[in-house]
Design brief:
The protein is mainly β and about 150 residues long. Helix content is about 15%, strand content about 45%. The relative contact order is 0.19. The strands form 2 sheets. Strands 3, 4, 6, 7 and 8 form a 5-stranded antiparallel beta sheet that branches. A 3-stranded antiparallel beta sheet has the order 1-2-5, with no helix packed on it. The C terminus is likely disordered. It is elongated, with a radius of gyration of 28 Å. It is built from 1 helix and 8 strands; from the N terminus they run αββββββββ.
Length: about 150
């Protein structure tokens, strides 16, 4: 029988080539970012059944913590500042993901209001806002007849 002789240099080259081939295949087969969770995010949406009734939904995912408080609601724009007008909170939520909704009702008025809706997560013990959890809608002008964008 003939024996195959491999020199030390030839063996090293074959090992290096095999490792490079394995690394190349790993990067081709695995999609970019595989195994990494999506970044934390939140959204606040609004629907209106009429000009005086607004359903606000605050949705989040990817935050840490449990026993958090979802705080969301209606803010009125007054002289360039957003003043809380009517807030709603849901205690005991998980930062991993969730969604809460509430319907806010205006009473009739002849004065137009500029409003927006905003949601956030708060720590259930310290009441500090969870970083990055705030989201809001655009501004709406409402006279309890028909919301319009200002």
């Amino acid at each position: 029988m003939d024996s195959i002789r491999l020199s030390g240099t030839r063996v090293r080259r074959m090992v290096v080539a095999a490792v490079l081939l394995l690394l190349t295949l790993t990067f081709i087969v695995l999609p970019a970012g595989a195994g990494q969770p999506p970044p934390p995010s939140s959204t606040t949406t609004i629907t209106s059944s009429n000009g005086c009734s607004f359903t606000v939904t605050y949705t989040w995912q990817g935050f840490h913590g449990k026993g958090l408080i979802a705080v969301f609601g209606l803010y009125e724009r007054l002289n360039g500042l957003d003043a809380s007008y009517n807030l709603f909170s849901v205690p005991g939520v998980s930062g991993k993901s969730g969604s809460v909704s509430h319907t806010f009702n205006f009473t009739g008025t002849t004065t137009s209001r500029t409003v927006l809706f905003r949601g956030a997560l708060q720590n259930g013990r310290t009441f500090a806002q969870v970083s990055g959890s705030t989201s809001g809608t655009g501004l709406f002008a409402s006279d309890c007849a028909n919301p319009t964008s200002p």
